[in-house]
């Protein structure tokens, strides 16, 4: 158990709909990262938040948005969903020890768009 | 343009033998590298890391080697066990806080009993 929690575990929805994925980081971690893993693909970095503020942006579509709240949990909002958005969405939080950063991943949310 | 490459999508190894997973990178700014292991239906799990000031880091059965001049790193698992069967991701970053990690596409390791 990495200490990072994600809900829901599975989500089935229809094209055009909007969903919200939730992530709670490990206790004490200020950074939250979101990744997308499509079928047989690697992990694509979407966005990072640090202590409530957006820190870095990757390959995130304009239909997607995220935020990090004062209690440090984060939500990833996916709107106008398309079939191709079906994927595993992972959240990670990071800690820095001895000058280096390590990311710890949650179990993921499996999104299926029908 | 893939900055982190894992050119072998899959690898099969006999139990007890050595597994060698390879990773190449193109960005010379990367100075911190990690390996993650992922089982189906689970999130990636941190395995081992190495900073560019080292060329080797060992943790039990797992050793990571870094060749900076070749921009190449490898993960050695000795001896391989059936429980090591998973997808292994190589990741790289610039080690200032907040820099995002770049992941390779992964290598699926199968350890045969």
How would you characterize the overall build of this protein?
The complex is a heterodimer of chains A (114) and B (113). Chain A is 0% helix and 56% strand. Chain A has strands at residues 5-7, 10-13, 19-24, 31-37, 44-50, 53-57, 64-68, 74-78, 87-97, 100-105, 109-113. In chain A, strands 2, 4, 5, 6, 9, 10 and 11 form a seven-stranded mixed β-sheet that branches. A four-stranded antiparallel β-sheet of chain A has the order 1-3-8-7, with no helix packed on it. In chain A, a hairpin with a 2-residue loop joins β9 (87-97) and β10 (100-105). Chain A is globular, with a radius of gyration of 14 Å. Chain B is built from no helices and eleven strands. Chain B has strands spanning 4-5, 10-14, 19-25, 32-38, 45-51, 56-59, 62-67, 72-77, 86-93, 102-103, 107-112. In chain B, the strands form two sheets. In chain B, strands 2, 4, 5, 9, 10 and 11 form a six-stranded mixed β-sheet that branches. A five-stranded antiparallel β-sheet of chain B has the order 1-3-8-7-6, with no helix packed on it. Chain B starts with a strand and ends with a strand. In chain B, β9 and β10 (102-103) form a beta hairpin. By secondary structure, chain B is an all-beta fold. At the A-B interface, β4, β5, β9 and β10 of A face β4, β5, β9 and β10 of B.
